[in-house]
Amino acid sequence: MASSSSSSPVFLILCFFTFFLLCNANPFRSYHRRHPRFASHNYKDALTKSILFFEGQRSGKLPPNQRMSWRKDSGLTDGAQAHVDLVGGYYDAGDNVKFGFPMAFTTTMLSWSVIEFGGLMKQELQHAKQAVRWATDYLLKATAHPDTIYVQVGDAVKDHACWERPEDMDTPRTVLKVDKNNPGTEVAAETAAALASAAMVFRKSDRAYSRLLINRAIRVFEFADKYRGTYSDGLKSYVCPFYCSYSGYQDELLWGAAWLHRATRNPMYLNYIQRNGQILGASEQDNTFGWDNKHAGARILLSKSFLVQRMQSLHEYKSHSDNFICSLIPGAPFSTAQYTPGGLLFKMSDDNMQYVTSTSFLLLTYAKYLKSSGTTVSCGGTTVSARTLRTIAKKQVDYLLGTNPKKMSYMVGYGPNYPKRIHHRGASLPCISSHPQKIQCSAGFSFMKTESPNPNVHIGAIVGGPDLHDNFPDERSDYEQSEPSTYINAPLVGALAYLAHSYGQL
């Protein structure tokens, strides 16, 4: 007997689909809401890896939840030479020295990433906060004594003469400090900025720790402002040419005061900024933002007070920020930025990618402030919207992740084609598990000079990047292009969180 139409397969499918529609109203609506456009990259994956990178840079006693398993404990007696505890913190790049100046800037930018975009990070927020805390726990040790900051552990010249794993290092762990007699205003003010911004990161989750950070930030900034001088003078043979302060300390004083103003809401910092802003270079046309020069970042940070909180006394920082933005817009009347043929912002041949990530972060952050206030940027009669800033930032991040002439991701472990021979001692030498015997100072160079890929994949590490013509040789000896650093990754964390959320990946 033939089946009736009421029980035919077609009829049953139609009934099921009708029932599905009734129960779910529009089953595709959430998909379209979460994925408004086609995503060029897996920004969520890149975000995860950009934060994981910091675990590979850790110094000190590693925690049980350490995920970068090829790294082990190192630097466990750091500070002993000066009878202080300086265990912990981060190695800045591919060597085994702890430089306080770039470490503090890294901390500030990690914190700013969490402050602006942490609410979008979902499960990665805890990892980002752990990355901040690994730095601030160390910075609290480095600032434990009043009017003294320990600013470096290790002798860079002797360290660079060796190619050793951090777990093996036997070069001098020289301890350097700034104090009242040998001031270091830039490193002190940057450390104050790091502590103040981090205090905001932990304000809700750990109030006691947040209070400790902000109180220390206040004390350190007072020291930075009262005892003025550049640390490059007193410590020149140790910090130059590695992290010499070429821009002076005025930018750090403005930057530090801006962070304390934001973190404390104390009017004394607003008064300080109003009184000293111009002296400290608020209006200078220096449009390079990185570990040495903080002027552009300070302008963007202070512009929020005017744009979002309507502090009229800081209105000039909107125009200062606009000038920085206009310098980046290709074809705009005041544009001074240089781009490679493939579209990458190019500032300098050494470690250029740090300027790409820091600038991308500032573009996205300023776009957020502009949108909140319903304003735009005017570049010589050309109106630039928040959307334009986001488009430029996305293009830079996409280039970094593989949308470039070489189709290479400049983040290790992301995508099918990425640098295999990064300039990094720990990554390029066999790990302790596979080679428990100590690798002596000079013996490591035999590994460094091979053409073989690094045995340890330093996931999330972003290298210095291609040259002005989009070329990248992937050679371990080429530290200008192949060395990763913490201050390249830190601002990208915030940018990736924004992009991952925008494309429904978080």
Would you give an account of this structure?
The model is unreliable at 1-7 and 9-35 (pLDDT under 50). The chain has 20 helices and five strands. It has helices at 9-24, 29-34, 43-56, 100-117, 124-142, 156-160, 185-201, 207-226, 231-234, 236-239, 250-264, 267-276, 295-307, 316-326, 353-373, 386-401, 425-428, 445-448, 479-482, 486-502, and strands at 98-99, 148-153, 175-179, 377-379, 382-384. It has a three-stranded antiparallel beta sheet with strand order 1-2-3. With 506 residues, the protein is mainly alpha-helical. Helix content is 47%, strand content 4%. The longest helix has 21 residues, at 353-373. Keywords: Carbohydrate metabolism, Cellulose degradation, Glycosidase, Hydrolase, Polysaccharide degradation, Signal. It catalyses: Endohydrolysis of (1->4)-beta-D-glucosidic linkages in cellulose, lichenin and cereal beta-D-glucans.
Which keywords apply here?
single chain; 506 residues; mainly alpha; 3-stranded antiparallel beta sheet; two-stranded antiparallel sheet; 20 helices; 5 strands; globular; disordered N terminus; 6hp_glycosidase-like_sf; Glyco_hydro_9_His_AS; glycosidase
